[in-house]
Amino acid sequence: MPTGHISRFSVRFYLIAATFSGKDTPTPDESDRFAGGKINLPGWRGQRAAPAPGGDGGPRLGAARRYHRLVLPFSAQTRAANLTRMAEDRFDVLVIGGGITGAGIALDAAARGLSVALVEKDDFAAGTSGRSSRLVHGGLRYLEHREFGLVRESLRERGILFRLAPHLVRPVPMYMLAGDLRSRATYRAGLAGYELLAAGRNIGYHRSVSAEQVREAIPGIGGLGQLGGRGRGFRYFECQVDDARLTIEVARTAQASGALLANHARVEELRGDGRVTGAVVADEMTGQRFEVRARAVVNAAGIWAERVTRLAGAGLAGASAGAGPAGAGPAGAGGVRLLPSKGVHLVFAPGAVRTTAALVAPSGAGDGRFIFIVPWEDRVYAGTTDTPYTGDLDHPGIDAADRDYILSAVARNFPGVTERDVVASWAGLRPLLSQDEELGDARTSDLSRRHAIFTGPFGLFSITGGKLTTYRAMTEDLVDRVAAALGDGSPCRTRAIPLGLHGPAAAAVRLARDEMGRLGLPPRTGARLVQRYGDDWREAARLISEDRSLGEPVVSNLPVLGVEVALARSREMALTDEDVFVRRTRLTTRDGSLGLIPSGGHRRE
Ligand SMILES: Cc1cc2nc3c(=O)[nH]c(=O)nc-3n(C[C@H](O)[C@H](O)[C@H](O)COP(=O)(O)OP(=O)(O)OC[C@H]3O[C@@H](n4cnc5c(N)ncnc54)[C@H](O)[C@@H]3O)c2cc1C
């Protein structure tokens, strides 16, 4: 998977930068602030939008314009203002880490009326939250480990997320093949139990399907002979989500609820005397350092959580009295001890793996594990591995063994698929909690996906483990404890806060399709914009109406439009090329050869 430069993008960037409204465009002062940093795009500095034709974008876009005024920008300018306030104010809560957990905590705490600052050393979702299997699921396989509580919680949260973000969290049919009576009975019992645990929050009920029905849903599948004459498969439903987009949507909603967030801002030191009262933060774009003061500090740094607890300065070194897990867990750095596990995914070229549904297939390594083979727009991705990891946390690589493991499972089910069909890949690290001093023979796949909260030194709350699916419940648990410690006990509200789309998705898609028709674009563009940007499809329509070239693809043959890059900058706080291509538009996980960085998620230094 070659890497290179996205020179094709530069022209489009120029156009996109030129469309920024005056409000969202950095003033000359602010753009100077980034001159030595990572923003180095033609047209970025001080470009102003051309006046909209007809003054307001045309009569039909009147509603979109009014809407635009209501929506908060979330841009480099927002970030600069946030950092200034962070240096001046004292907050109830400082959150370290802008993955799904940190963003969720910022939203939950702000919605309870607490003043919140969040800093992320890289970009939102640059860690594990942008590198998952992209499933919002109960975790059927955890039934095997008798983790009924975790499955029940995950299924409940799946239902809540499906309601709060129906444009992002969408049902996907999953197929499992059962060649013999024994596996058929096992799957049937497992799925029935699974649906029972969902307690009425099922996305759809499972069904036994014939080999013919499997072939209809998964035309490229081979080896259905294994099902035999009376062989069957099962179809059930989970949800899939663009994990990075979900994280960014939660971050935006947190900002809209009153929290102040900044990406590319690293915590370098924890401050305090006897108790943690803040942190020293470095703005990675300018190198400036300043202190953020807070009554409580939350460490939501995922696989880096152990490192963050070690950032306590001299005044805190001996202040671990009261340290230890709020739940069960071993003591370590503030009680946190992690055992990262690596998971790799491969992306296949359009048409290489022909399927309209996800397939849950045995790994092929005889280890009892399963691989998900999942359709994603016009491509298919497959994963994941699950191996203990001790390397560089910032740059998990993909080796030949990882690749062979996934490829062999795919090729067993889709004959003829080879490495040549792989167009991109990504690797992520699970922040699994170590349960014993010695892992012994246990596999990381056997470690629980539960979360745990640790307190200590005084004033520092660390949260780790868990799943993307259960982030809301995790953050409710954490903020309950922080609020109790601060004596500010209003109840959690996040079950009722929509994430980026107000009103039914179908109605928004209808409106967006009509609007795209009026702009001379295919109706499917309207559906795409709603599915990715929720309410902001209107802002996309407004921008396209002002500059029709933004309705064109950024790269030919890929569906990502110029307007999406504009939204990334003005509405989603994308600062660097990598922010735009890896996490906002996901161009690099569609085609690794486009990457100015490898699609494995490596970051530019
Ligand atoms: C391969 C794989 C597949 C998975 N698949 C699924 C799935 O399908 N469904 C599911 O529900 N879950 C899945 N998960 C689990 C899920 O992705 C994680 O549980 C979740 O993303 C963890 O989020 P987090 O916010 O805790 O960590 P992260 O997303 O890693 O966020 C932590 C953040 O802290 C930041 N940070 C670290 N140090 C500092 C510092 N000093 N200053 C400021 N910021 C700092 C990091 O840059 C990072 O962005 C999967 C995980 C993996 C690895």
Short description:
The protein is of the alpha+beta class. It has helices at residues 7-17, 28-33, 62-70, 76-88, 100-111, 148-164, 181-197, 211-217, 243-256, 305-309, 314-317, 400-413, 471-486, 505-518, 523-533, 537-546, 562-571, 577-584, 587-590; strands spanning 90-96, 116-119, 135-136, 170-178, 207-210, 232-240, 260-262, 265-272, 276-283, 289-299, 324-325, 341-348, 358-362, 370-376, 379-383, 387-388, 422-430, 451-455, 460-465. A hairpin with a 7-residue loop joins strand 13 and strand 14 (370-376).
Textual characterization of the structure:
This protein folds into 3 domains: 7-71 and 503-577, no CATH class; 89-129 and 245-338 and 445-496, FAD/NAD(P)-binding domain, CATH 3.50.50.60; 169-240 and 340-443, D-Amino Acid Oxidase, Chain A, domain 2 (2-Layer Sandwich). The protein is built from 19 helices and 19 strands. The chain is globular, with a radius of gyration of 24 Å. The two termini are 20 Å apart. Residues 1-70, 320-333, 437-442 and 595-605 have low confidence and may be disordered. α5 packs parallel to α9 (243-256). 33% of the residues lie in helices and 19% in strands. Residues 96-102, 119-122, 126-129, 131-135, 137, 266-267, 300-304, 308, 343, 384, 428-431, 466-469 line the site of flavin-adenine dinucleotide.
